[in-house]
Amino acid sequence: MRKQILLILTVAVLPIMIQAQELNARVSINAGRVSSQTDKKVFSTLQNTITNFLNTRKWTNETFQANEKINCNFLVNILEAQPGNIYKATLTVQAARPVFNTNYETPLINFQDDGLTFRYVEFQPFEFNDNRVSGSDPLVSNLSAVFAYYVYMILGLDFNSFSLRGGDPYFQKAQNVVNNAPENRDITGWKAFDGLRNRYWLVENLVNNRYNSIHEAMYSYYRLGMDHMYENENEGRTAVLNTLSMLNSLNNDIGNTMIIPFFLQGKSQELIRIFKKATPEEKQKARDILQKIDISNANTYKSELK
Hints:
Elements: H1 2-9, E1 19-20, E2 23-30, H2 41-56, E3 64-65, E4 70-82, E5 86-98, E6 105-119, H3 138-162, H4 168-179, H5 199-207, H6 213-225, H7 233-253, H8 259-264, H9 268-276, H10 280-293, H11 298-304
Helix pairs in contact: 3-4, 3-6, 4-5, 6-7, 7-10, 10-11
């Protein structure tokens, strides 16, 4: 289904195109906080290694054309270098997908993972196996496992945005990574008790049947809402407002979930632009819901959607 829709979304398709992998990933590593005694060339090598891993590995059974690649960014911010070539870092993951008949891309994910710990020696193999996620050295394997996890999340979110429940196979793959993740006292983010906003809870919210409505909300937002904004802005806006109502209902039924703030992260300005032109009734309804479910941006919605 995603491929059929993307053929429609593409403005012009060349007669002959090179088949490509799924991602157009850009990786950046910031090692500014690491001691000058550490050879910074290691991070340049690692950046290239991860980029090649993401962009050359075949992640799905789908055939992607070059113009269908998913644009995504990964920023590794090294916080600390420890003995034994161990590093503590944060990982910011961003991805977007095109909106029908426009050059605009709408965010799929904009999330910072604060619990990335890994071991890396320059030029060591960067490997990932779905059937042996934990590998032989947990701290080495944790780096590739985290990246593979977020690739599956990006694929799931992208496919979900084109067809209802289209991302389920990739969320299952992400859950497999969680279930078989490397274990070490310094590794966090894979367990329920590691916090309320981590890899465990993110995929749990996407595979747990209690949260089924989040899949309907995603499809409504992207396919019925954003993709219709060019041809029929009012119809698209109505679908986005319906999405907010779904999220509000989910929030009322199951409070303090991870998936709602995760979904809304990075969308505040997009939502403001959508509802700036709405009727007073629509604008007020959107403002009231957004102030409730996107608390971190509540004041912005209050001032911008008067």
